[in-house]
Amino acid sequence: MIPAACKFAHAKAEAHGAADTNSGPELTSDACHVHDGYISVSLTCRGHCSLGEFLTVRSGVYMRDDVARIFIGFDSKEVVAYHVLCQSILEHSSIPVAFSPIVLDNLRGIFTRERNPLQSTEFSFSRFLVPYLSNFEGWSIFMDCDMLARADIAELWSLRDEMYSAMCVKHDYVPKVETKFLGQTQTKYEKKNWSSMILFNNAKCTALSKDYVNTATGLQLHQFKWLGSEEQIGEIPVTWNYLVNEYEHRTDARLVHFTDGGPYFEDYKNDDYAGEWFALRDRVVSVQEKVSQPAQ
């Protein structure tokens, strides 16, 4: 079986070569091998090929499968949340991780939809670009920034199942409050908070094209209407997206979600797990000072 990343590399070389046919050089990929998680592509160039043309194909080389690729929603109203979440993941992780913040200013020309008055964060819809930003290859995790990891992310990463196109915690609840942080309306809809933490099997999420994400309705996106059926959604244990205030405190919660508002907002500073969040925040901004030597 040809690995998916090799198929991509072959296709990219062929497309690049076809595009260059009129100008002379023809670039093709002859062989592709995967060893210990890395891809090796053999290329043939007929005519004069520049280094840039080889690098164009080499950009199809993908990250090792044992590196957790994590996209996190970034909101300018709660910048500190992103950094504390990253720190909480780093402190518990036993595997390499790669963070990619979903920042609107970095997506100009890619994410073009107008802001919806009902969206409470800047990444309400841009989160669905994760498969596109991952070149529809491998797996990626998305999570809201107002979360706190309390366990090894390797446990979550190990739950990936090729049977499914996407995996999430399938919450079944009605929010207890009508408003959340900064006085925003707490919207209520089927599959509420399913999309706040998703494992994307990117190759099976090609429906989430750039155009679709920019034009689909909010419910089409958040209710997973971009999948062919409910059977394509795998279920993850609730402890991996544990809703603070909506659920009773659990000592075994692996990833807690301050869905009403993070403890960095005054109204929520005493919520469950807030003490752990503040301790992590303090470590984020801490530095080790030079130790003074005692006088001789």
Structural overview:
This protein is α/β, with parallel strands linked by helices and 296 residues long. It folds into two domains: 55 residues, no CATH class; 216 residues, Spore Coat Polysaccharide Biosynthesis Protein SpsA, Chain A. 23% of the residues lie in helices and 20% in strands. A six-stranded mixed β-sheet has the order 4-3-5-10-7-11. Strands 6-13-12 form a three-stranded mixed β-sheet. A two-stranded antiparallel sheet has the order 1-2. Helix 1 packs antiparallel against helix 2 and helix 3 crosses helix 8. It is globular.
Per-chain topology:
Elements (H helix, E strand, L loop, with lengths): L3 H16 L6 E10 L2 E9 L4 H8 L9 E6 L5 H14 L4 E6 L27 H4 L5 E5 L3 E3 L3 H5 L8 E3 L10 E2 L3 E2 L11 E5 L8 H6 L2 H5 L10 E3 L6 E2 L11 E3 L16 H11 L12
Parallel strand pairs: 3-4, 3-5, 7-11, 12-13
Antiparallel strand pairs: 1-2, 5-10, 6-13, 7-10, 8-9
Helix pairs in contact: 1-2, 3-8
Q: Please write the string of helix (H) and strand (E) elements.
A: HEEHEHEHEEHEEEEHHEEEH
The helical percent reads 10-25%
User: Which topology of the largest domain does CATH recognise?
Assistant: Spore Coat Polysaccharide Biosynthesis Protein SpsA, Chain A
Low-confidence segments: 11-25, 50-61
Strand order of the largest sheet: 4-3-5-10-7-11
The radius of gyration is 22 Å
In CATH, the architecture of the largest domain is Alpha-Beta Complex
- Number of E-type strands: 13
Q: How would the global form be characterised?
A: globular
Strand content: 15-25%
Helical region count? 8
Separation, N- and C-terminal Cα atoms? 71 Å
